[in-house]
Specification:
By secondary structure, the chain is mostly beta strands. Helices cover 4% and strands 50% of the residues. The strands form two sheets. Strands 2, 4, 5, 6, 9, 10 and 11 form a seven-stranded mixed sheet that branches. A four-stranded antiparallel sheet has the order 1-3-8-7, with no helix packed on it. β9 and β10 form a beta hairpin. The chain is globular and about 40 Å long. It starts with a strand and ends with a strand. The relative contact order is 0.31.
Length: 121
């Protein structure tokens, strides 16, 4: 069983910054990758960023150059540093873990609480 707890969301003005945290139960080394997703009001959940066990990162085109995903293996935590925030970034942000070829919450069919990010204009 995997437990992922998101935190760090809040209200920020456009152009501001926030740092989100995803605390995992157990070592994150066991996962092929960790990822951040988001779901805006009335829209589908979308992939924002991933980081592989080796440290390589990938980002959605909409956040490239603005968001940075990182990890602290000692703390079993993955971060999402968000800068130059836009109103379009407003969403509930969720973390996920990939084991082998399967993303955990996709296979489970359920997601955690997430953390809300609201960007005002």
């Amino acid at each position: 069983q995997v437990q992922l707890v998101e935190s760090g969301g809040g209200l920020v003005q456009a152009g501001g910054s926030l740092r989100l945290s995803c605390a995992a139960s157990g070592s994150i080394f066991r996962f092929n990758a960790m990822g951040w997703y988001r779901q805006a009001p009335g829209k589908q959940r979308e992939l924002v960023a991933t980081i592989a066990s080796g440290g390589s990162a990938n980002y959605a085109d909409s956040v490239k150059g603005r968001f940075t995903i990182s990890r602290d293996n000692a703390k079993n935590t993955v971060y999402l540093q968000m800068t130059s925030l836009k109103p379009g970034d407003t969403a509930v942000y969720y973390c996920n873990a990939k084991e082998s070829s399967s993303w955990y919450h996709d296979a489970l069919g359920a997601w955690g609480q997430g953390t809300l990010v609201t960007v005002s204009s």
